[in-house]
Amino acid sequence: MFGVEALDLARIQFAFTVSFHIIFPAITIGLASYLAVIHFLWLKTGKVKYENIYKFWSKIFAVNFGMGVVSGVVMAFQFGTHWSEFSRFAGGITGPLLTYEVTTAFFLEAGFLGVMLFGENRVGKKTHFFATCMVALGTFLSMFWILSSNSWMQTPAGYEIIDNRVVPVDWFAVVFNPSFPYRLVHMGLAVFVTTALFVGSVAAWHLRKGNQHPEYKKMFSMSMWFLVITIPLQIFAGDLHGLNTLKHQPMKIAAMEGHWTNEGYGATPLVLFALPDSESETNRFEIAIPVLGSLILTHSLTDQVPALDEVSKADRPNVPVVFWAFRIMVALGGLMLLAALISLYQRKKGTFYTNKCWLTFIVWMGPSGLLAILAGWFVTEVGRQPWVVNGLLRTADAVSPHTTLHMSISLLGFILVYSLVFITGYLYMVRLMRRGIDSSETTAIDHDNMSKGDQ
Amino acid sequence: MAFDLSFIWAFVILIGVAVYIVADGFDLGVGILLPFVKQEAVKDEFIDSISPVWDGNETWLILGGAALMGAFPLAYAVILEAFTFPIVVMLFALILRGVAFEFRVHSPAGHKKIWTIAFVVGSYIAALMQGMMAGAFLEGFLIGTTAQGTHFFDGKDTDWISPFSLLTGVGLVIMFAVIGIFWGAMKGNDTLKNRVLSFKKPAIFALIIVLIAIMIAMLFSTKLMPLLVGARLYLVVGSMIIIGLVLLMLLGNSMSAGKGFLLTVFIMVCGMVGYTSLFFPYIIPPSITLEMAASASSSQMFGLVGTLIMLPIIIFYLSWTYFIFRGKVIAGEGY
């Protein structure tokens, strides 16, 4: 009884801290690349417009980055404090991957961020641009390693089990494990889409208020073009990721589809809406399209998709959570596609920067990328249960043997500190975004010399 | 083979921890000294002196944690589990300190004071927790063994609190204050420089008193006294004598701030040598050796190749950023 409760508390705490954390890198990775592009345009054209955009977003980037760093440090230590059995069992693989993340990514970001934010008057223009690029590279490498580590836990490869712990035998197979390429592409596109929506919605907010400055138009236009290109790619990548999951983690797919049994069925239907009931192992209020599930997932009209009843109850993930998180992600993706299509129409009609309904829609779409990422991670992480390392280590066996009291205190501490610090931080960020571009900071006088005389 | 790799890894982790203590040490020292600086502009100047570098400094801590997980997963699991409480508190403190850098600048005017307080409180608590963990680590962990021969932490959540760990906690807070004083004197303009230097004598005297107290506590400790034999005794006593002499040198008035800073770094390195010699070759004192806690040599090898290639590169560009931000703080510099 007590063991189970402490486990639940540890799981809630991990879900809470990691969900809070992922918001920051999701924006940091995309924004760093965006800043590098804007910095390049600024360097190449010397236009004040780009300098303004760069300085505006680098402030928001800095606040966001700071919150990402400190909440990320928590993750690095939580594996040991709350999941000591996991660390003992899998540390020989996840540890070196994390070490690579620190040595190739964290130091790069941290070292060059100082130059990027504070060094403009101390280094040349090109060096300053180089620093921005290094920060962007660092964020990307960080995503590479952390997704490799997570994917390995989803689809372990390249290991042996010796003395009750994993021992790597083929590092190439470990790093490039079966689900890693799909997860990297899907998450990579997701963070860029998220940033495009984030930047686009801030621009839309200002445009809607009547601030028709070239900066906001530029930001808005770039974001919307980006969505037009990447959303279809993302839908395609998501489909491929799904097929990969079907191959390696069929129970996750069965949970996503709310697919309880194949008995008495032919081809698998696609469930659009349902209330999955784990007790009776059925869906209530189901609305389904016959055969479509088979068509999407097996690309045939007859093949069946594996069903939940193929494994015992104890080996199934929480179906309602996975089922609904998946639908939220897909629905948000649909809205993003709609936004991309409307943007083309609005451009054609000539009301792209002025139509209030359209601009309001994009303002509201601002957090949709973040929500879709969170929902997607709930699908993949809850869908992996009851395993922490798929097929090798159960979550229940991975937890530290702390008491329920100990876990309760630390969970409460995390909720208090995170809510206070990070919600406040987000309010400050919103404040910066509302305040908008401050042209007085620009070095408008002379663009060919090193930027002197600002402040 | 495995033993040699463990040895190298232990050295890498030690270097990481040592760099962290020195680099984030003066960052935390700034927070520890901040309440004694009165004018708002001078406070800003003091914090500005570390704004461009604190993040890189803190990364050494994550390197230590990640390397420990990869190379010695057993030690990572046991030590972090035993230190869950102080680690969580330290992390909260580092969160407060870390966000305060940005929030102070970007918050509404009325909030600035709150984030300055958060910065100070975060610095004190982080330093205290680190110092207490350092002391508790030396006193060792209660280790159990399962029927399968797996080692686990068999103690209580509160084992890390002891009179000795309190002493080392206070000691580290004062040590960070001392290095913060020389950092402030080196980077600060006249007002800041004179202000922090006025604390030099009391801080160094306090440090000497705490060090003597720690030595006495060790002599009376049933856990620590038996360690002081042979080469260990010479290393510990030797480093203590050197530290004492350098501290007396630092009390002199004629020394430049830069030289004082370097000598403080030297003290911290000596402290690390003495400290490490107290538990080597154990990684979970008093019973688990480096070899027993090591991951498979394939794990250690993979991580080591990357780390040994990357470390010189990291040191190169981090030194370069320090070079860029050399000299006194320029008021209002930033973005």
From TrEMBL, chain A:
InterPro entries per UniProt: Cyt-d_ubiquinol_oxidase_su_1 (IPR002585)
Subcellular location(s) of the protein: Cell inner membrane; Cell membrane
Pfam families: Cyt_bd_oxida_I
Keyword annotations of the record: Cell membrane, Electron transport, Heme, Iron, Membrane, Metal-binding, Transmembrane, Transmembrane helix, Transport
Membrane topology recorded in Swiss-Prot or TrEMBL: Multi-pass membrane protein
Source taxon at top rank: Bacteria
Family classification: Belongs to the cytochrome ubiquinol oxidase subunit 1 family.
UniProt-recorded name of the protein: Cytochrome ubiquinol oxidase subunit I
Organism: Ignatzschineria rhizosphaerae
Taxonomic lineage: Bacteria, Pseudomonadati, Pseudomonadota, Gammaproteobacteria, Cardiobacteriales
Automatic annotation (TrEMBL), chain B:
InterPro entries reported in the protein's UniProt record: Cyt-d_oxidase_su2
Record-stated family: Belongs to the cytochrome ubiquinol oxidase subunit 2 family.
Bilayer topology annotation: Multi-pass membrane protein
Database matches in PANTHER family: CYTOCHROME BD2 SUBUNIT II
Transmembrane segments: 6-37, 85-103, 115-138, 160-183, 203-221, 233-251, 263-284, 304-325
Compartments, record wording: Cell membrane
Keyword line: Cell membrane, Membrane, Transmembrane, Transmembrane helix
Organism, scientific name: Ignatzschineria rhizosphaerae
Gene name for this UniProt entry: cydB
Superkingdom: Bacteria
Broad class of the protein's primary localization: membrane
Protein name in UniProt: Cytochrome d ubiquinol oxidase subunit II
NCBIfam families found in the cross-reference section: cydB
